[in-house]
Amino acid sequence: MSSAAKGPAEERASLIYTTLPDEEAARTLGEALVKARLAACVNIIPGMRSIYEWKGRLEHDEEVVMIVKTMPDRAGECMAEIALLHPYEEPAIIRLPATDVSASFLDWLHTQTRPGR
Fold first, then answer.
1. Which one, out of 25, 30, 78, 98, has a CA that is 20 to 30 A from the CA of 87?
2. Around Cβ 34, how many Cβ atoms within 10 Å?
3. CA distance 90 to 68
4. C-alpha count within 13 angstroms, C-beta hemisphere, residue 76
């Protein structure tokens, strides 16, 4: 067994997780990201239940999950646009690196997120 430490796996794609109050808000934000080529695809998953404390009160809300698929070089700009357009005062915007991605999907993802295409 080698004593050499393995470094972190290379990020090949990025997934950005956020939540929104309803499907209409998610659809509006998702369309803006895809049209701007900041995302290749957005998944909208309705029916999530959230429990959290906000401004001293325990909240129970139904929300919509949005998962944004983009390339690492577009992720920062994509996150900034989500923050700009998001209806929440303090949105959860979380980037998750994807290290294992099929080659054909990665090619499509790259093509879809190129400006001026």
1. 98
2. 18
3. 18
4. 1
pTM assigned to the model:
0.90
Residue with tokens 């997934």: 15
The per-residue pLDDT for range 49-58, each reduced to its tens digit, is: 999 999 999 9
Q: At what angle do helices 23-35 and 72-85 cross, to 10 degrees?
A: 140
Residue with tokens 């429990």: 51
Cβ neighbours of residue 7 under 8 Å, at least 6 residues apart?
none
How many angstroms separate the CA atoms of 19 and 36, rounded? Answer: 20
Degrees (nearest 5) of the Cα angle 70, 10, 81? Answer: 25
Euclidean distance between CA atoms 39 and 60, whole angstroms: 30
What is the rounded CA–CA span in Å between residue 60 and residue 77?
31
Give the CA diameter of the chain.
53
